[in-house]
Amino acid sequence: MSLLADISPRRALVLLMIAVVLLASGIWMAIRLTTDHLIDSEARSDAQDWALYMAQNVPDLRQIAAGEQPSAASLDFLQKTIRSGPVVRYVIFNRYGYSQFLADHGKAAAVDVSQFSRAAEQAAKTGQTITDRASDEGLAGAGYLVRAFVPVIEQGVVVGTVSASIDENMKLAHIRHVFLVAALSISALTVIAFTLPAVAWYFRTREKQQADRRIRFLAHHDPLTELANRERLIERLNGALMLATPGDRVALHFVDIDRFKEVNDWLGHDGGDFLLKTIAERLSTLTRVDDYVARLGGDEFVVIQPHIEDDSQALGFAERIAALLGQPIPFKEQQIKISVTVGVAIWPSDGTDSERLLKSADIALYCGKNAGRNCIRRFAPEMDAELRQRHKLERIVRDAVIENRLELNFQPVFAMAGKSLIGFEALARLPNPEGGYVPPDVFIPIAEDLRLIDKIGTWVLHEACRTALTWPGDLTVAVNVSPIQFESQSIEKAVADALRDSGLPPHRLELEITETLLLRSDGKAIPVLKRLKAMGVSVVMDDFGTGYSSLSYLWKFPFDKIKIDRSLMASFEKSGRNAEAVVRSIIALGREMNMRVTVEGVETAKQVEFLYDANADQVQGFYFGRPVPAGEIAADLLNRLREQRESASAAPAAQS
Ligand code: C2E
Ligand code: CA
Ligand code: CA
Questions:
Q1: If I label 579, which of 322, 350, 372, 491 is the partner at 20 to 30 A Cα–Cα?
Q2: DSSP-derived secondary structure for 354-379
Q3: Among the bound ligands, the one closest to the CA of 604
Q4: What's the gap between Cα 486 and its chain centre?
Q5: Taking residues 300-321, what's their average pLDDT?
Q6: Angle, CA 479 vertex, CA 475 and CA 482 arms, to 5°
Q7: Cβ–Cβ < 8 Å for 124, 93
Q8: What is the pLDDT of residue 654?
Q9: What is the C-alpha to C-alpha distance for residues 150 and 50, in angstroms, rounded to an integer?
Q10: pLDDT tens, 593-627?
């Protein structure tokens, strides 16, 4: 069987069947030869017995052999014998081999016209019985005729020869039939004996071959999507680059699902798998024969697009990829909506070998991710520098978290009415080892990507609460919370711990969240926000009026406060009336919905004047105070409180 292992099971089975057929026919041949031999020897001895029997029972045999007529008694005996026995012919020869008398089966015996028989002559000469196979000799239907020539010896002298012919046809047919049945049975048994194990072996081998094929397939493919894996991709890419002619270009598209981890957490394992499979299918539908799709693991897919004429063809294809994958994916009565970032590298300009090309596409993807995802980026040489810068920043963020080097600044917030200080917003600061600070707009997204934001957020909460407790009265502290902190579900515990550890009354803590949280969590954050609110802390909608800004989010949760994004104040001087109108309507909306409205980024007296007129509740901005470290607050605070006291005492004086 091991020899057959290299042959395909189908061919092996055919070979086995041939072997079985050969064996069966061999058996059949052997049986035939044996039966023929058996019949022949039996017939010869029968014929001899009958010839002897006659020689002994015909008294005037010598006379008949000498040419006389048989006596009446002998004739009668001969006729009876020929009718009843298996002998079809008796012949009596003289001692020279010439027939003198002949009796045929069914016919009366007759005196023969003399005919010579060599066998009869031989028998007479040698005194030995001779047997032979005869042709039918005119006896119709006698196919298998055996003759025996028995010399008749009287007183030591041969007087003639008697021959008896026996027809063994019937017997032969019968024996052949019996043996045929036996041969067929043996053949059938042999076939079964061979075939059953052969068939069993065939199926086992086929199963094994299928399993082997599957194992070989899996070695080069991703089991979930059945797409090629990294190893196979590199092989294909090498092949595509080898086949590319000088005028050709080969594009490599790195496709990565934006925020796949969140989608995966949200949908559960099944949903995540379903999403990946759907993406694999969609990518496959987009490709032409020469294109090649692979999954590098996780949510990273790669498409090779060989034989393109110019770069725009590659970018057009990337756009089609992004558009198709952006189409809603129906899953369990839901519609999964995702976006992807695509990094494109083109041979030969972005890399002359597959390794460099993959790296370029990866870098392009990376830059797309850093640029806020949901975009297509073609590799550019300066991206290398961008990537190095990003790696540097990642290291700074990591080190700062490990070494606890983050700092917290506090920016005052004032009530419009009476311009009284009501609290501070805590803003994280990351010292740059090379001097200065890394802006939060830069390091917070990196910390989010690195999943360090939970740690940072928890630290900020503790630090902010602890600091706020050193402030007088009811001054509040606002803490910015990243959407990522809601994903890990650690936010409730972090807030509760910070309040408990610091002893700060919950109503003095404000949590600032952005619309992105509600947008991305698809409503899942709402119950968490409700529980936070139930703890007594305030929840603030930050950066309102930018980005996705949809009023619908204001209806979804009873925010305590809306913070109008600083970009509106920044454009105030330029866009004038427009910004004014937006700010006025947000303030009116807040009034309507029982939410206070804070305006951020107030920098000029003119803006303050307008906000006063527009009836804003609270203000925050460089005009009133920049973010400062906790240690510098004391002085600032003292000044403000003194101012407040002065204005409070000045008012009654003016009245009097
Ligand atoms: P934000 O929550 O909108 O914070 C207000 C930002 O506006 C602060 O920038 C502040 O310095 C700046 N700002 C205040 N007044 C003025 C003004 O009059 N003019 C101008 N041009 N800017 C003003 P910062 O500190 O650079 O923070 C930027 C963003 O980083 C914050 O925006 C916030 O989204 C995020 N961030 C800061 N600290 C944290 C934190 O501890 N956790 C989280 N998750 N995010 C933080
Ligand atoms: Ca804020
Ligand atoms: Ca803000």
A1: 372
A2: HHHHHHHHHHHHHHHHHTTSSSEEE-
A3: 1
A4: 33
A5: 94
A6: 165
A7: yes
A8: 43
A9: 10
A10: 999 999 999 999 999 999 999 999 999 999 999 99
Cα 628 to middle of ligand 1, angstroms: 12
Contact at 8 Å (CB) between 187 and 177? Answer: no
Look-up: residue for tokens 């209806």? 555
Gyration radius of the chain over CA positions: 56
pTM listed for this prediction: 0.61
CA–CA dist 270, 483 (Å, integer): 24
Q: Which residues of 51-71 are buried (b: 16+ CB within 10 A; e: fewer)?
A: bbbbbeebeebbbbbeeeebe
Q: Residues lining ligand 1, CB < 6 A? A: 411, 427-428, 439-441, 444, 457, 460, 480-482, 512, 542-543, 566, 600-603, 620-622, 627
Find the mean pLDDT for residues 187-205: 82
Chain segment 548-581, per-residue pLDDT in tens: 556 777 888 999 999 999 988 988 888 767 888 8
Amino acid at 187: S
Ligand 1 binding pocket mutation candidate from 407, 409, 566 (most atoms within 8 A of CB): 566
Ligand 1 atom closest to Cα of 570? 21
Please report, for residues 295, 366, 462, 468, 604, the alpha-carbon distance to residue 346 in angstroms, rounded to integers and kept in the order given: 19, 16, 49, 55, 50
| φ and ψ of 94, to 5 deg | -80, 175
**How many degrees, rounded to 5, is the angle at CA 396 between CA 392 and CA 402?**
140
Which is higher by pLDDT, 498 or 28?
A: 498
The pairing of beta strand 334-336 with beta strand 329-331:
antiparallel
For residue 603, CA distances in Å to 121, 130, 165, 618, 642 come to 150, 143, 141, 14, 22
Q: Distance (Å, rounded) from C-alpha 412 to C-alpha 478?
A: 10
Under 8 Å between Cβ of 544 and 512: no
